[in-house]
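Tokens in:
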């Protein structure tokens, strides 16, 4: 009888309204907690550090607002050149990652093979090992691989120190995760579509490029957005593999702004704000497809 009364009480409109209010309150507090550091960083980027923020505090009213921090960050940090270096690494890496992962996922999900599960497990297992653990062996391997100068923009004579090395590392580490996501997505595509293509005489290449890939657009957009954010913000491999400072990615621009004896945090905040703009723009541009890829299958039984 107690269980029945409790169950009846949980179906009352007031009970659901209370749960909804509690959930909205929690989400609002969490959102404010996430926004405070970002808003304070943007706010500080328009203020002088020593004469204003350092004396009066981050949340105090400013004496004056200025764009000097942005001009100085762009000049000293070399953000323009480092941004081009990052795009040179990120865009080819994303294209190769999505291409290779979609090929593996297509082969493992649309064709019956006793090794399908084994291949998927192997690709996924590569993401379980921390990258920092194996950076020394990878560093030594790339240091011993000759690389023609005609294919390199740094003319080191070896694969180490080239942007190609960073691209290869990103492709190797990120392909497993994308393969896992795309394989689950392709399993939701009805097998009857592939069978109809075979009856019509469509080749495997046509099935992949003209049938399966267009259907996987939401998943590819979601993965492309995530991968762009991860690769664009990567600092570790760019610092390890690229020896010359002018060839490093954009995240290294912040390191250049750290002084030997003092640090201008407002200057770093300005650089961080500029660096974050491309990732925000990509998310806004692909927001519709990104959310569609994340919510795919949520309404299926």
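Residues out:
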């Amino acid at each position: 009888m107690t269980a029945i009364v409790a169950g009846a009480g949980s179906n009352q409109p007031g009970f659901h309204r209370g749960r909804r209010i509690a959930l909205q309150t929690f989400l609002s507090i969490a959102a404010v907690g996430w926004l405070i550091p970002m808003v304070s960083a943007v706010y500080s980027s328009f203020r002088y550090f020593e004469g204003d923020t350092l004396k009066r505090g981050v949340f105090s009213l400013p004496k004056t607002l200025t764009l000097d921090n942005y001009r100085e960050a762009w000049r000293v940090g070399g953000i323009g050149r480092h941004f081009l270096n990052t795009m040179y690494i990120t865009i080819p890496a994303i294209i190769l990652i999505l291409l290779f992962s979609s090929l593996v996922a297509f082969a493992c999900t649309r064709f019956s093979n006793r090794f399908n599960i084994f291949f998927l497990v192997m690709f996924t297992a590569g993401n379980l090992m921390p990258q920092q653990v194996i950076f020394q062996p990878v560093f030594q391997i790339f240091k011993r691989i000759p690389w023609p100068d005609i294919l390199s923009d740094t003319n080191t004579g070896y694969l180490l120190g080239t942007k190609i090395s960073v691209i290869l590392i990103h492709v190797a580490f990120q392909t497993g995760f994308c393969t896992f996501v795309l394989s689950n997505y392709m399993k939701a595509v009805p097998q009857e579509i592939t069978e109809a293509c075979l009856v019509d005489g469509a080749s495997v290449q046509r099935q992949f490029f003209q049938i399966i890939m267009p259907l996987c657009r939401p998943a590819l957009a979601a993965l492309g957005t995530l991968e762009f954010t991860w690769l664009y913000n990567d600092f570790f491999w760019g610092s390890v593999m690229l020896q010359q400072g002018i060839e490093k990615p954009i995240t290294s621009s912040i390191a250049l702004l750290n002084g030997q004896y003092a640090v201008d945090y407002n200057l770093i905040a300005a650089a961080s704000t500029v660096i974050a703009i491309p990732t925000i723009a990509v998310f806004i541009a692909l927001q519709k497809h990104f959310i569609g890829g994340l919510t795919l299958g949520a309404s299926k039984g």
